[in-house]
Structure formats: structure tokens, C-alpha cells
Automatic annotation (TrEMBL):
Residues 9-224 form the Alanine racemase N-terminal domain. This is Amino acid racemase. Its cofactor is pyridoxal 5'-phosphate. The keyword Ribonucleoprotein does not apply. One of its GO terms (molecular function) is alanine racemase activity. Keywords: Isomerase, Pyridoxal phosphate. PANTHER family: ALANINE RACEMASE, LYSINE RACEMASE. SUPFAM superfamilies: PLP-binding barrel (SSF51419). It comes from the Bacteria. Coiled coil: none annotated. Gene3D superfamilies: Alanine racemase (3.20.20.10).
Length: 356
């Protein structure tokens, strides 16, 4: 059976690296848990590190956080849908918003639930995902800051999430200026400029972060230790908090090319035939994991000489060449994961989750 390991010591090392870095820069932060897909075992590991603020894009995952640790501040990190506002207000202490009507509905629901709900207004800074256009921000704030049971605690932005626009000092300075303009015009304090996600960390480490930016929302760099500017592991962090293990369920020497009339497979592709390979063979291993669990392009082989040939719904096919490592049925093959691969694995009910 395939399984996923989370290494507690490596997660703790990454957490402490980030905690110390943020403290040195006078920045508050919360951990984005959406990668964990509500897995209670892994969420407990996060909370045991001392995490006091958890962000997620699924209300059910925030409900799990509140069940485990009611005192942890929960943050819903995508614009809420109208039909989910009641449960969102119940389980999220904070939400990220960019629609006037949505904030009005949240206000009405917060009154019903006798709760004060905190809001970060998201501002468009170029990546063209969620966010109020800067020219409209002052009017937007004027329409929401006095709504009952609503507390506007920050301005935020997302970069690199859709079109790959990278954060820059200039873009973040602009967001800080919006905060200053609103505070002066309305004589109201906005505590946070929440401009930091994992992609913004390199600016902070290079001392290029504007002083007004004082809140980060961190997922990928915590779990993968990655500098998203240079796409490499940050010195002092660990890149393999997660490892996937899949078992060999068949090992046979087989021809390199299929035989028979070719048509599209269930994924809609037709095998590409290299006639120079006729008559040649290699050892093929079938693993107990497939497309239902993860797209092979997000798997990173850890060691051993093999090629991922493809996958069906429940099986992954490897070419081991002459099998010089003498792999056998029952042996485990280890993979590291790209972010989207880990997300798929953690969302799969068929992969066992472990902590080491």
C-alpha cells in the first residue's frame, strides 16, 4: 500500500526558521493549512509547533482546526460564496474579501451569530486574481468599515497565484500607501498589511520588504523550504518534509513497444512508436498508485535509475532498464513531491498518512 510520510523534525526546523525570520523583521504570520486537506493527524502536528493562526480555503478544514484547538485564530482565504457565509462566520474568525455585497452578508450573519468577524480587504496588484482595484479602494472601504459586527483588520494581496506576477518592493510599497491614505482619510487604524505569501519571503530575506508589510500567510515554504524566486531550497530549511512511498506490485521484463492495433487510451493519448526499439526489452515495475491519486509529472524520484513511463487510474508504470538495483515485488520506491503533487496525495483517501 502506498503511504505518505511527514517528518516531524523537518517540519519543526522549517517552522522555527520562519518564526525566527519573521520575529527579526517584526512581522506577524499565520500558517496556510490547505495543503493538508483537513487531515487531523497533520493539523495536530502544526498546532503542536505553537501555531496560533491557521489559514485555509475550505470551511470544513477550519472546522477541524476549531475542533482540535478552539483558541487558534482561523482565516478563510478565498472570497466566500453566499451560500457558505453562515458556516464561514461560524468557523472562521477572519476572512479575505473583495466584494461589497459579500461583506454586507457577512455583517448580517455575524449579527445573527452575535460574533465580531474580522476582514482583510484584498487589493488587486497585477496578478488579476481576487482583489479590489486600487482606484476603487477608498470608496470600497467607505462602504464597509462601519458595518455592524465587522472589523477591518488589514489590506492584503495575492501575487504569482494566477498569471505568475512576482512580488516587488514597488508593488508592496503601493499597498502600504493605500493603508496610509485610508487611515488618514477615515481616522481609522488598519493593523495589517498582509502582502506576504511564500513567494514574498525572498524579498524579506534580502531586506527588500517595505517596513509597512507586517503580516504573512505561509504554506509552501513551510512544507518545502523553497525560495520561489530561485526555485531552490533556502539555506537552513528542509525541502523534504513529505516523502511518498509506493510499493512494486509487478516486476517483469517486457518489450519496450506495445504490439497490436493502437487507439487512444483512457487519458486520450496514443502511444508514440519509435521503430528503432522493436525487439528490445527492459524491466518494468508497476506501483500501487495512479492518476486517481497524483499526476506523475508532480513526482520527483529520490534515487535509483528509472523513468516514469505513464499511469492508469490506479497504477504507475516505471522503466527500470536492466534493473541494476535488483528491485523486486514488495519493494518500496520513494518520491519527493512538487506542491501540486503533495496536494493531490493529501486529498486522496487511498494513500495512508503517517508521521515520523
Amino acid at each position: 500500500m502506498a503511504f505518505l510520510n511527514l517528518y516531524r523534525d523537518k517540519l519543526e526546523k522549517n517552522f522555527n526558521f520562519l518564526k525566527n525570520s519573521f520575529q527579526a523583521n517584526d512581522v506577524e504570520w499565520g500558517v496556510v493549512s490547505k495543503l493538508l486537506c483537513g487531515n487531523k493527524l497533520y493539523i495536530k502536528e502544526l498546532i503542536s509547533l505553537g501555531v496560533r493562526e491557521i489559514h485555509d480555503s475550505r470551511i470544513s478544514n477550519l472546522a477541524t482546526v476549531k475542533e482540535i484547538a478552539p483558541s487558534v485564530q482561523t482565516v478563510y482565504i478565498k472570497p466566500p460564496s453566499k451560500r457558505n457565509i453562515s458556516s464561514m462566520v461560524k468557523y472562521a474568525d477572519v476572512s479575505l474579501n473583495s466584494e461589497l455585497n459579500t461583506i454586507r452578508w457577512i455583517s448580517e450573519e455575524a449579527v445573527k451569530q452575535n460574533k465580531k468577524h474580522k476582514i482583510i480587504i484584498m487589493v488587486e496588484t497585477g496578478d488579476l486574481r481576487e482583489g479590489v482595484m486600487g482606484d476603487h479602494l477608498v470608496d470600497f472601504y467607505a462602504n464597509v468599515f462601519e458595518l455592524p459586527n465587522i472589523d477591518i483588520i488589514g489590506l492584503g494581496t495575492n501575487l504569482n497565484c494566477l498569471n505568475g506576477v512576482m512580488p516587488s518592493t514597488d508593488k508592496l510599497i503601493q499597498l502600504c500607501l493605500y493603508k496610509q491614505i485610508i487611515e488618514l482619510k477615515f481616522n481609522k487604524r488598519i493593523p495589517w498589511v498582509s502582502a506576504g505569501t511564500s513567494v514574498t519571503i525572498p524579498l524579506m530575506l534580502r531586506s527588500q520588504l517595505p517596513k509597512g508589510v507586517n503580516h504573512f500567510r505561509i504554506g509552501e515554504t513551510l512544507y518545502f523550504g523553497v525560495d520561489l524566486f530561485e526555485e531552490k531550497v533556502i539555506d537552513g530549511m528542509e525541502g523534504d518534509v513529505f516523502e511518498l512511498f509506493a510499493e512494486i506490485i509487478e516486476m517483469q521484463e517486457k518489450p519496450l513497444l506495445p504490439t497490436g492495433i493502437l487507439a487512444a487510451n483512457p487519458q486520450g493519448t496514443i502511444a508514440d512508436i519509435d521503430e528503432s526499439l522493436y525487439g528490445k526489452s527492459s524491466y518494468r515495475a508497476i506501483l500501487d498508485i495512479g492518476l486517481l491519486d497524483v499526476d506523475p509529472k508532480y513526482l520527483i524520484p529520490v534515487k535509483g535509475e528509472f523513468e516514469i513511463l505513464g499511469a492508469s487510474s490506479d497504477m504507475l508504470i516505471l522503466d527500470l532498464g536492466d534493473n541494476k538495483d535488483q528491485k523486486q515485488v514488495g519493494d518500496l520506491i520513494k518520491f519527493h513531491l512538487k506542491y501540486m503533487g503533495a496536494l493531490a496525495i493529501l486529498n486522496s483517501n487511498y494513500i495512508e498518512k503517517k508521521v515520523q
